[in-house]
């Protein structure tokens, strides 16, 4: 446990440099033994998260849902799905976490609801032209008999974005829009009910102690009501359903709700936008507090690419005064250990394929170095559950257990996202490696052979494990004042003949972070090693930083023997 526990959580700007741990509830821990993770499981493991050193937990959707998209299809935002627990338990969980100094961020999904949501059911029942349908995008089809869909917009999950309804008399009816699956109809954000309802949902969770919200698909809400086709090369704000200028009003309204609390609540956006200036617009002082840095997350293990991402990130955030975020993965993307071991280690949606080779030893080494890199950068840090254990992507799930609609909508070509959602291993043995109680139901996705060896139990006492590394990284990040100091590239300290194409070097105050993606290089003289992601190499001319290794160094105070050069 950290020494400063009593002071954690008192600062209104805690989110500017917080460590936020993402819990994918279904796969974290199963308290009741039905094979699905739940709130009881999370409550049991709160001390683990406290000891890991996290400031907040972001919970992926835990609301009532048919789980057509893992809960991103919400049937009722004010109810917890019975598979996960009850509203009373969620309230208890929020309070218990807070007692341990851990804040709660809930996931709000404003772009769409579940087809089972009462609004959508009412809209289907009320029929064409009804006020109930105006909360969604119902539209007659084009062409003879209205047989053609209103637009050819392509879904983020591949395929089409319109589904035709059937009238009560059995004849084909209107179409409705869904940027994701047909089970996730898009809401009409021009409708005042939709705006009012969401501000109310925010208050509902803020009143229950949630410290903030993560906003799903945050750049997609507003649509061009004239429903044009997507232009070949849309300019800024010209896309009919991505990043429309009118969207910012929504977030200004939400910020006002967040600011109306004594301890202002925090808005974190899931904003996938290549245009960094447009991205930064979401972070203006009266909009969101932070947004995920997917640019950094998607970069390959390449010094030039990572450096460029760090620089453009900092450049984009500076004018709006918002802190950057550093993200290595989440429940939608390939686990870092697997991704960084691939020949092409960049991430792109829809590009996943079965059978893509990876070198897990290299990937693990790089993921360890990436942990030091991301944790040393200025801003907040996200850790996706299981990355602290160095879990690989599970790439050989039997086809008949795959659950993710992305897989099915790709015609089975993309394996989908289940490989990073396999239930966590807590113990070496047991029927589900401690995911659930021994003798309980099998986990909803099968755990692969060897899962026990990467369990919390197996790693906790092993000094060389990924878990031990993460614990040290997060502890130092909290205790070292240097992590509150300014960032500066330190190319002048680049060791030997190394270039910025191989080595990233930067300072935060008196702390120097060096990440070597090329051949081994000497560490600069006059520094002590605080932490390294792998063993350093002793050498005649001084200690060397091996390939795919990161180190945190501190300038040796004058008069002391330096720690990086042999005595
Ligand atoms: C982004 C979420 O992270 C993802 O899991 C989900 O499928 C889509 N938004 C749709 O809600």
Automatic annotation (TrEMBL):
<dbReference type="Pfam" id="PF00128">
    <property type="entry name" value="Alpha-amylase"/>
</dbReference>
<dbReference type="InterPro" id="IPR006047">
    <property type="entry name" value="GH13_cat_dom"/>
</dbReference>
<dbReference type="Pfam" id="PF11941">
    <property type="entry name" value="DUF3459"/>
</dbReference>
<dbReference type="InterPro" id="IPR022567">
    <property type="entry name" value="DUF3459"/>
</dbReference>
<keyword id="KW-0378">Hydrolase</keyword>
<feature type="domain" description="Glycosyl hydrolase family 13 catalytic">
    <location>
        <begin position="22"/>
        <end position="421"/>
    </location>
</feature>
<dbReference type="InterPro" id="IPR017853">
    <property type="entry name" value="GH"/>
</dbReference>
<dbReference type="GO" id="GO:0016787">
    <property type="term" value="F:hydrolase activity"/>
</dbReference>
<protein>
    <submittedName>
        <fullName>Glycoside hydrolase family 13 protein</fullName>
    </submittedName>
</protein>
<dbReference type="InterPro" id="IPR045857">
    <property type="entry name" value="O16G_dom_2"/>
</dbReference>
<comment type="similarity">
    <text>Belongs to the glycosyl hydrolase 13 family.</text>
</comment>
């Amino acid at each position: 446990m950290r020494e400063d526990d009593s002071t954690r959580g008192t600062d209104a700007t805690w989110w500017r440099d917080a460590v936020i741990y993402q819990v994918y509830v279904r796969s974290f821990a199963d308290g009741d033994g039905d094979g699905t993770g739940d709130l009881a499981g999370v409550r049991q493991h709160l001390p683990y998260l406290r000891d890991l050193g996290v400031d907040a937990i972001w919970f992926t959707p835990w609301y009532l849902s048919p789980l057509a998209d893992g809960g991103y299809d919400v049937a009722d935002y004010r109810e917890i799905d019975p598979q996960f627990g009850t509203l009373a338990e969620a309230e208890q969980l929020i309070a218990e976490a807070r007692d341990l100094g851990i804040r709660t961020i809930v996931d709000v999904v404003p772009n769409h609801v579940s087809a089972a949501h009462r609004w959508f059911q009412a809209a289907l029942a009320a029929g064409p032209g009804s006020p109930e349908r105006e909360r969604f995008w119902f539209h007659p089809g084009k062409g003879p008999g209205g047989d053609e869909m209103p637009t050819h917009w392509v879904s983020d999950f591949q395929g089409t974005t319109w589904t035709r309804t059937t009238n009560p008399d059995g004849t084909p009816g209107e179409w409705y829009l869904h940027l994701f699956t047909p089970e996730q109809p898009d809401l009409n954000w021009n409708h005042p009910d939709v705006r009012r309802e969401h501000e109310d949902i925010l208050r509902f969770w803020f009143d229950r102690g949630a410290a903030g919200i993560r906003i799903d698909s945050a750049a997609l809400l507003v649509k061009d009501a004239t429903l044009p086709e997507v232009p070949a090369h849309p300019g800024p704000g010209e896309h009919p359903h991505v990043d429309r200028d009118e969207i910012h009003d929504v977030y200004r309204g939400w910020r006002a709700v967040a600011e109306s609390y004594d301890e202002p609540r925090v808005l974190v956006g899931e904003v996938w936008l290549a245009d960094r200036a447009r991205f930064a617009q979401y972070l203006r002082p009266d909009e969101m507090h932070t947004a995920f840095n997917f640019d950094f997350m998607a970069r390959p293990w390449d010094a030039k690419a990572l450096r460029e991402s760090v620089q453009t990130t900092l450049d984009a955030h500076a004018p709006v005064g918002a802190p950057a975020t550093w993200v290595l993965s989440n429940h939608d993307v390939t686990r870092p250990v697997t991704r960084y071991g691939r020949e092409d280690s960049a991430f792109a949606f829809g590009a996943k394929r079965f059978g893509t080779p990876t070198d897990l030893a290299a990937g693990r080494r790089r993921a360890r170095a990436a942990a030091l890199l991301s944790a040393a950068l200025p801003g907040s840090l996200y850790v996706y559950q299981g990355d602290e254990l160095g879990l690989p992507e599970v790439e050989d799930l039997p086809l008949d257990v795959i659950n993710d609609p992305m897989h099915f909508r790709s015609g089975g070509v993309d394996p989908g996202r289940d490989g990073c959602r396999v239930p966590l291993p807590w113990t070496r043995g047991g029927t589900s490696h401690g995911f659930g109680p021994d003798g309980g139901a099998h986990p909803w996705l099968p755990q692969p052979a060897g899962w026990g060896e990467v369990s919390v139990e197996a790693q906790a006492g092993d000094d060389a494990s990924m878990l031990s590394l993460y614990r040290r990284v997060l502890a130092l990040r909290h205790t070292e004042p240097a992590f509150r100091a300014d960032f500066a590239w330190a190319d002048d300290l680049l060791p030997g003949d190394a270039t910025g194409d191989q080595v990233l070097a930067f300072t935060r105050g008196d702390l120097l972070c060096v990440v070597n993606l090329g051949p081994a290089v000497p560490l600069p003289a006059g520094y002590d090693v605080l932490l390294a992601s792998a063993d350093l190499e002793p050498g005649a001319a001084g200690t060397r930083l091996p390939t795919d290794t990161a180190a945190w160094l501190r300038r040796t105070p004058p008069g002391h023997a330096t720690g990086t050069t042999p005595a």
